[in-house]
Amino acid sequence: MGRADVATTSSKFANGQWSVLVVHPKVRWGSGSASVLKQADRQLEEAVALVNNLPNMIAVDSLIMPVDYNTKRKSIWAAGNLEKLVARRETARATALMVNVDVLSPAQQEELFGIFEVPIFDRYNIVLSTFKEFARTDEARLQISLAEIPYIKHRIHALASKRLHSRPEILHVEQQYAEIEGGDLNEILRKREQDLRRDLKEATRRATEQQSGGSKHSSDAAVIAVVGYTNTGKTSLVKRLTGAESLKPKDQLFATLDTTRHVAKLPSGRSAVFTDTIGFLSDLPIHLIAAFEATLAHVKSADVIIHLRDVSNPDWKAQEEDVVATLKSIGVAREVMAERMITVDNKIDKDTSVDSPESSLSESSSIRISCKTGDGMAELIGVINEKVSIATKCKTIRLRLDVRSPVIEWLYHNEFVVVEPISDGNMLIFDVVMNESEIGRFRKKFAHLKRKN
Ligand SMILES: Nc1nc2c(ncn2[C@@H]2O[C@H](COP(=O)(O)OP(=O)(O)OP(=O)(O)O)[C@@H](O)[C@H]2O)c(=O)[nH]1
């Protein structure tokens, strides 16, 4: 499949780019909702950024339109507001409409298409196309294909019942499915899902094998997952902490779709694998999150989770709630978050005067850093070191060894010596940090020496 497959069949797709009118349907939320915190204009801004992030789309105009009914009902707007929207589309010469809701139902698509006569996109379309655009590995591509299945299922029935016949905004892949004659579509999709899951399992196994291959301590290395809203600086942080030249931060949404793993040495001498994973986004359709389970699985089992927030963004609080909700939805329990999570505030070098007094009161437990200037890095490394020691049940052990002891070579060879030993006559005193399994290994290997002593 080609990139950004949405809407490949319309005659209005000119100059290789869709001119999109972005509409944010403003809903009156009940109090207590996370979205209350996020102003409608910022949600609109985010939708425009998502559209502009795609190479074949450009937002030519955008507006907030209060809903007259309900975003779940067939009709979102009444005649008056619809007329205003139609006029706005004509003035902007938009060749497509993006309605900033999670997923539009086939009935809503149908109604809006009947009125506007241009392709109608929702967040699912746009996010899925964005994912396709930035997927670089088999693992990510397979996860995206898997994420497409529920959406296709949802709409294929409408297609099959001719309610959405040959419509321009349908996904290319839906068209392919719709053209399959005679077969049971549900059965075909079920089979495809099964095949994709099998291939994904294999791709994940291969990726894990390849990426852990280079590390001497791979099995004992602590795993540190860096999570956070898209564009908060996750890649920049991993680059800072590990010096990985191969990582190139991009000012782009979802630049990271594939999990990257990079190894660094902590002050304790312990190796740590930092994983930089997919960015989170508000209202990510649940199927999309579920499909990225393979990518996110390591977060559940990570020894330490770094939650990075971009405090220069006025919406950081609402973004944080989205991240926490997403983590919960993939099965990261609250206790795990409380125990293993380090909250880190990034981009403190930027002008944060826009912050409300409330936001500048961010919990004192968070660590303030700048990936750009390096501020706060030493403190952060110290905290990571401490958390990893607790999570991996590490202990500092003092060893008093004869200078000729074979243990010394073993300690150096296995990279346990971080602080040079203190000399005491013929003896050397080492302080080494080991976890339970390493202590076990050590005892087993040198049990004969102990017996001799
Ligand atoms: N001023 C400033 N900019 C930063 C800082 N950290 C990151 N950035 C910039 O923010 C943008 C996004 O950084 P990334 O590291 O790609 O963010 P990410 O969270 O990995 O992004 P996704 O992969 O989209 O989720 C880039 O342009 C970075 O240069 C910082 O401390 N200060």
UniProtKB/TrEMBL annotation:
Record-linked InterPro entries: G_HFLX_dom, GTP-bd, GTPase_HflX, GTPase_HflX_N, GTPase_HflX_N_sf, P-loop_NTPase
Q: Under what name is this protein listed?
A: Hflx-type G domain-containing protein
Q: Name one GO cellular component term.
A: cytoplasm
- This protein's record includes keyword GTP-binding: yes
Originating species: Caenorhabditis remanei
Query: Keywords of this protein's UniProt record, alphabetized?
Result: GTP-binding, Magnesium, Metal-binding, Nucleotide-binding
Q: What are the boundaries of the region Disordered?
A: 200-219
- Annotated Mg(2+) binding lies at T235, T256
The lineage, from the top, is: Eukaryota, Metazoa, Ecdysozoa, Nematoda, Chromadorea
Task: Tell me which domain of life the UniProt entry assigns to the organism this sequence originates from.
Answer: Eukaryota
Q: Name one GO molecular function term.
A: GTP binding
What residues bind GTP, as annotated? 228-235, 254-258, 276-279, 346-349, 370-372
Name the cofactor(s) required for activity, per the record. Mg(2+)
Domain Hflx-type G residues, every copy: 222-392
